[in-house]
Write the structure tokens for this entry.
Amino acid sequence: MTSDSLKRLFDRMDDIVQSPRNQTNKQFWQPQLWYRDHWRGIPKQTDGRVVPFVVEPDNGFWHNVFDLDLRRYYSDPDAHLEYQLKINDFKFKHFDDNTYYDGNIFIWFGVITELSFFGPKLVMFENREGWIGEPPLIQTQEDLERLPLPDFYKSGFMPLIHQYYSRIQELVDGRFPIMFPGWARSPFCMAIHLRGMQNLLMDMLLEPKFVHKIMRYTTDARKHWLAERAKFLGQPMTPGHLFNDEVDYPTISPKMYEEFVLPYEQELSAYEGGLSYWHSCGNTTGFLELIKQTPNVKMFHVGPWTDLAKAVEVMGHIPLDICVDPNKDMLEISQEQMETKLRSIKETCKGTAFAVRNDAIMAVNSVEFDLDKIKQWIKAAIRALHN
């Protein structure tokens, strides 16, 4: 990437941030920093006539659009910056949604960012997000006892994160703020992947004390890392995210959630001064009353498998981030059916602060076909949610 091409991308980002459309979109959202990809805002309460909506494709989609090798995106800071700016340009040009571009540059290595800090084998792919290899790190109680707390400078992706932070600051040269990553994944998510899902679920039944030891470790690991982050940046700790896709029924029961998960989430909320976002793509209908017991949650995610009316009833006192199924609610139906679905969401959520997301859109057909369906969905959203 030449300095001229980078300057053009910077100029384009400036134009987007300052554009009247972007400033209009700003009014829908409460102020907050989003430290990773797949931007989310906390929606403000509106009069109910105009509801914000957001389109956010998965990185596998961008692989197809730009012929982007995600292994390079996650190993070369220059590419990370270049394609982040190109993606913003593409989204603003093609998606007439309510995403707000604040000009902040993120550093993020996908769903395995925090998992990498524990030292598992990492497997990277050209066309989709990386993952962790087998076997799980924790095979025995002795394995757990040998695991150190993550080193803020040396563990997993941390050396690369520090390299990115330094290099991207050099490239940007003060034009845009560079955000240091936060810790998004929940202690239960870490426990599932360090121990293995089947193993941990069996442990909940047969070795509950072992499960609590693992949860204690993953909770302490997050707290330790966040304290080191605050020290490194010279900034106070702020409410964090809790990405919790493994909280799903019937994978675990509400009783399991109450015993093995909830106490540690409440502890983190107290430690971090609240949680800016509680997220699970799974079916959380049976957990809603328990999740509500965690104080100072600023926004709650309602995935396509959770009962929307029940979520509004129990969690509607805080802003809701409502996600549709990109296949069932977009790729597989007509524009008229999309509009019907969105009107139903709007009616169900009446009186609640909420936004609608069409999120994690994968590359299923051709770029042209999928892009046309996205644009149909946006037209349906404007008709259903902006009137």
Observations:
- The first strand starts at residue 29 and ends at 30.
- The mean pLDDT is 97.
- The chain has 16 helices and ten strands.
